[in-house]
Batch of 2 targets.
Target 1
Amino acid sequence: MNITARHAGTLVEARGITVSRGGNVILASVDVTVGAGEIVTLIGPNGAGKTTVVRVMLGLLKPDRGSVWRRDGLAIGYMPQHIHIDSTLPLTVGRFLTLGAKCRRGEAEARAALDEVGAAAVMETPVQAASGGEFRRILLARALLRDPDMLVLDEPCQGIDVNGQAELYRLITRIRDRRRCGVLMVSHDLHLVMADTDKVVCLNHHVCCAGHPESVTNDPAYIALFGKQVASTIAVYHHEHDHDHAADGHVVPLGRGAVPDHDRGQAHDPQGEHNAHG
Amino acid sequence: MDDFLVRALVGGCGVAAVAGPLGAFVVWRRMAFFGSTLSHSALLGVALGFLLGINLNVGIFAVCAMIALSLVAMQRRARLSDDTLLGILAHATLALGLIALAFMETQRVDLMSYLFGDVLAISANDIAMIYLGGALVIAALAWLWRPLLSATVHEELASVEGVPVTAVNLAFMVLLAVVVALAMKVVGVLLVTSLIIIPAAAARRFARSPEQMAVLAGVLGCGAVAGGLWGSVVLDTPSGPSIVVAAFALFLLATAMPPLMQPR
């Protein structure tokens, strides 16, 4: 990956990021670049430093060495990995959304954002009452309310079953296609993510390998990290579905799910080269 | 009604009206122990006030603010958990305060009135102080409301969305220090936290938005002050503890009652 020249479409570029904590090197000279309309996925084992990369790129953490360049006025929509809202806080989903929006946007925008992620039904419910899948979508809606040039999603599918995960990844791809925003994503779900990712960065404290999903999955460093077994499941995974799911998980007829008009099967396409509106 | 009782009611309600909304944030942010630590350190502020011959409220505020700031600094360095740090600070400062006051035997310091409050001895000056300080706190809280609520929900998300989280958190601690200083006269250093968190906890059942909970906490706090004073007159009980018991009774009542409004 050549990152010496910064392309016009570059949104964020991290170079030579090094972070150590208490004598342990968490990140060693990591380079990650995200361009407009590009989905970049960080994969790697637990404790590989994926979230640290995200925090550095968001500007939440200052690296010991290295630099982060962000395009001027870059609007970032961020979806954190964990979020716990104390049950004593009386907050509806709608209020949670408008709280994060740019300059006091109204309920209508919040509703539209919820609609876009297929969770419009939960607008008035207390935010703590949302299910795991609903809550991830709510967080995504809050990120969208920022009119982001770039989405930063830290394990967007945490706590969602495998079918719901495929749906959510398809949704993320569609949002990218519609809004032409860049996406930086952290994921464990190798087999689900690969298809729609433009660039994979395989991380284990350093960048083991990076590039197009196809080239990465054949990279010896990748196979060494995840094992041949896991690496080979990527092409094998296939999921037949004769129904869809609403955001709350109940079964609805095809095409009536929380993710409207989805192009079935494309998320399972290991080539990752397709047109979502095709 | 006697003059001193009217003054007690007016002053007590002024404190409760400010302590309620701030208490809501203390509850949401799980900072009850932090509030408790601040109030324990208030006794050291009393001693400082006597020592320097300055207004006791100012002394308390100065010490509380210092404790809050040093806690933030210690959190960044120390490897101890927050509640251990708070426990250390709470009791170390209380013990220091008790020792400092013991040295002032000649001044006939009425220790009990600082530990448990002396609302019936509240003066017109105290009331002026409470309402001036209280108005400042409420104004600051209204100004900080949105970023503070945002940081309460999730600090990193708020930070990415442009909220100056550290500054907002520090401002909140300073406001809390002001409330502790104002409330000490009413319920004393050992009971201040209860006036901050109990009305807010009682309000939770009936609130459907953060704003409702904050306002209701203030109202319930005033109810607790009125009830406690009434009980203290009728039963001839100490006023500060009576107010706290009244707040506790309100809390039990609120917990036992079915929620008035179900979410739609």
Target 2
Amino acid sequence: MLVTDQERLKSDIGKWLERYGRDRSALIPVLQEIQKKYSRISEYGMQVVADQLGIHPVEVYSVVSFYSFLDHKPKGKFVIRLCRTISCDMQGKARVAQQLKSDLGIDFGETTRDGKFTLEWANCLGMCDQGPAMLVNDVVYTRVTPAMVHDILEACRKTFGVYALESKHEEGHA
Amino acid sequence: MITPNHKAPLTFASIELDAGLKAALAKPRSDLIAEVTASQLKGRGGAGFPTGVKWNLAAAAQADVKFVICNADEGEPGTFKDRVILTDHADLVFEGMTIGGYAIGSNTGILYLRGEYTYLRPHLDAVLAARRQKGLLGKNVAGKQGFDFDIEIRMGSGAYVCGEETALIESLEGCRGEPRNRPPFPVDTGFNNKPSIVNNVETFAWVTCILVKGSAWFKAIGTQRSTGLKIMSVSGDCAQPGIYEFPLGITIAKMLEAVGGVGAKAVQIGGASGQCIPASEFNRTIAYEDVSTGGAIIVFGPHRDMLAVARNFLEFFVEESCGQCTPCRDGNPKLLEGVELLEQGRCSMRYLNELASLGETMQVASKCGLGQSSPNAFLSIIKNFKGEVMGRTQGETH
Ligand SMILES: Cc1cc2nc3c(=O)[nH]c(=O)nc-3n(C[C@H](O)[C@H](O)[C@H](O)COP(=O)(O)O)c2cc1C
Ligand code: SF4
Ligand code: FES
């Protein structure tokens, strides 16, 4: 990491600690911000957070390792999480999984070489009545078919910027 | 695209906004809690603890600071009702939390939203902002002098166990989501060691309805021990999956008729932690005194392989166990190995019995509800579908 990158991370962390308060309960919100912006929580980042909160870096590491949405290894810009739980399983998640693997050329748990995509399994996403369900970053896709996979990936490839696929509220209001 | 899957309008849609809050603020605190208690509302998150009793304990606790926590971690496989409630009726939930704040003497509400629902965040922030604008949050809520209350949202990070209330609190405090021993309970030592009520999204929404329509209305529905209505998340092999509102005490058979699931071979009630009920027991009722549930109903059609179902649930628990205690950490992988042996047709009846007693040990010896309920599906499947799961030949599925 370049010094300037480290400085940027450090100043971001400072900013987030201002927002969430400088006590232990700010830890996870700050880690979530780091994960979102930098696609990982580096050792340096953990060290800075630990120093600022006055806790041991090992404490921070143990928190990062506990939560599946926090990761110290670099992740792709787009993290794809396909639900593998029972209702999606019964609605054909296996074929969607196969197509994702073929189109991305990677297996679950891996990241594409260009750093664009990480493919992961998720447990029930709360969309069981309209599976197979899948998250791409924060965006939910429902009733995914193998044929839709290509278009979803293309839509990602065409977007740039870290917040590209953040929080679009798609749900219809009844 | 997420489509709203409502089969019929929910009661929530008929409730006049802020009428419940105003009715609550017009009462002395003790009367308000008495009204909730009289409805006999039990927690809609799964455990079924009486809400009025919980609030009374927190109200009685002496402390300068208290918290109202809404559990929107909704991670139980097969459950999605809280997502729908937060999408369509967030005001009722925030109103219920505000009523809770007044009841127990708290100024701060926290909605703990699962990370998977991050897309709902802008919508919920907007609802909160509008409530602040209208004076329904902030200083002197709805004109009630001396009652200040506001709500913040905190995000989960992809751990099912954080839905367990003490793990949720650990997570709010910036720690690993490892459940604590209970007692002490959150009503005494909750978030930051302060008295806290933790309630499910749906529970708060019903509180609001009860304040509008009265405890007698609620109590008249359901059974003696399970009063009121319950929102069910229905998925699996049925013609019309989605969200339903049923009175508690409904039989499984009747429910299957309503969702287009007649002819099912089994129904999983209560998600992965629940029980798998075979067709021969479809006359049983959904109620705290019979088959209890937080609202997840998964229908299995005649062609489903029940062993594959048991495998899917056990894989879930192996992954989601926090690893803190031995029965759960080591027991779930053992049961999963047992499923593999069954798949290969290499599990003796003696060994199967040993696995069943291991499951029973896990039910009593695990530290939290995750481990205590993780063997339920496996145990009910090997009990009810013995013929289907035993004596398989290589590669055979059902
Ligand atoms: C492993 C586990 C996961 C849980 N997940 C949830 C959840 O996602 N939402 C919820 O409301 N309750 C969940 N609970 C139950 C909570 O511990 C707690 O009983 C509930 O939030 C209390 O609210 P209620 O009384 O309104 O139901 C879970 C319990 C366990 C053991
Ligand atoms: S039962 Fe499982 S989830 Fe609960 S404390 Fe023990 S290991 Fe953790
Ligand atoms: S089982 Fe896939 S979203 Fe619930």
